[in-house]
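Handout, section B. The chain below has 186 residues.
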Amino acid sequence: MPPTLNPLKRLRSRRSKTSKSQKLYGAIVAQARLPDFYRDVGVPDSLDGRFAVLSLHLFILLRRLKQEGAAGGPLAQEVMDRFVGDMDTVLRELGVSDLRVPKKMRALAGSAHALLETYDQAFAAGEAPFAAAVAASLPSGCEDAELSSEALASYLMGCAAALERVPLSAVAAGAIEFPEVGRLKP
């Protein structure tokens, strides 16, 4: 007897994967939107400032998924795809023409990749080099980039340590919690 074919099985499977990456991406976006980063840490509350904070949280999550090797790879790619889709939407909302969006997206993808690589190398070297990489990525409106980057680096090191204690199954389910930001003061 042939197996029963269910045309909706693939759709349900995709929806399940989508909701996992959607939850994870939503968690880092929600964290990056917290006013504490802009009010207390000193990151400018601007498009560039919010992009910097979002990129840092994206880095910490991708780093955690990368630690799982092949098991974390597909989910990391799905989260990165959501990030790229979100950036596409932002460009369109900012009024970038449909003809220019692909060129802008290529440039943005290249700079995001380089930024994530820089963070990865600096993170591996320790908190001081990581703070320097964070300072270099903060927008020019940051009043005291060195103090802000030190506070952010310390916070993100704590985030990384907290995420390392969370099993992949919980991370994949979107069950991630970031340490409190409110106590960060540059």
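Note. The chain has one domain: 17-172. Compare this with the example in section A.
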